[in-house]
Amino acid sequence: MGTAPSQSDGGEADGDDRQPIVSRRCSRRRSTAETVHCPTCQGIGRIPRGQESKLVAVIPCSDQRLRPRRTKLYVALSVAVCVLVSALVLFFLFPRSVLLSPVSVQSSYVFFMSSSVEMNITNVLNITNQNFAEVRVYNLTVQALNYQTVVGTLHVKDVTSVRPLSAQLFSFVMPVNLTDVGMREYCQNPALTVHIVYLHLQISVTVYYLAHYEQLSLDAYEFLDCGANATVPHRLLPPPT
């Protein structure tokens, strides 16, 4: 009788290569201690413990988490805050006026020379700052005219600084030289009690504030006694209208 054929070595090798697709160890039901609830399976699934960070969540477009209830409120508050900050910046940094006005003549001293009459007139200017920033004042230029004749000039390079929302008084001495023969005789005439001389002051200054320069100008009018010293302050006359 014949004997049953034995399996070849190749058959044994083929049998050894066949492995299950799903490991029996993995396919057996895990215990509760080894798994946790699946956060994306609506509570009906479980995943191995320690693999929660490897999940990819898929959220439907209709999910309320994609539609925060206070989105409009947050947007409205953001817009309101931006508008408020912009308004405050414009309010505090918007350039306002710097006012230049004459105050008074503090004193005038008269000196009689052989060919002229010299006067040193102390004037006071008021500089008003209406800004929320400091104002620097430079280049004060004053020109004194007796009718159409220039009788004195003055230039001050660095004048003063004015703090925010305040006013500053600045005094300067204006030299005047009267060389006209008729004017000189008039001022030295002892028969007259008062010797009135008319002066027109043309004043200009440069102010710097909020990163820009401005030029301010002012006209003032004075009536002074050119025959004697005066130490009593009196107000300057405003420009004629």
Automatic annotation (TrEMBL):
Ranges where the Transmembrane protein 106 C-terminal domain occurs: 95-231
Ranges where the record places region Disordered: 1-28
Cell compartment(s), UniProt: Endomembrane system
Positions of the Transmembrane protein 106 N-terminal domain: 11-72
Entries under InterPro entries matching the protein: TMEM106, TMEM106_C, TMEM106_N
Top-level division of the source organism's lineage: Eukaryota
TM region(s), chain numbering: 73-94
Keyword terms of this UniProt record: Membrane, Transmembrane, Transmembrane helix
Coiled-coil stretches noted in the UniProt entry, renumbered to this chain: none
A GO cellular component annotation in the UniProt record: endomembrane system
PANTHER family registered for this protein in UniProt: TRANSMEMBRANE PROTEIN 106A, TRANSMEMBRANE PROTEIN 106B
Family, as annotated: Belongs to the TMEM106 family.
Protein name per the record: Transmembrane protein 106B-like
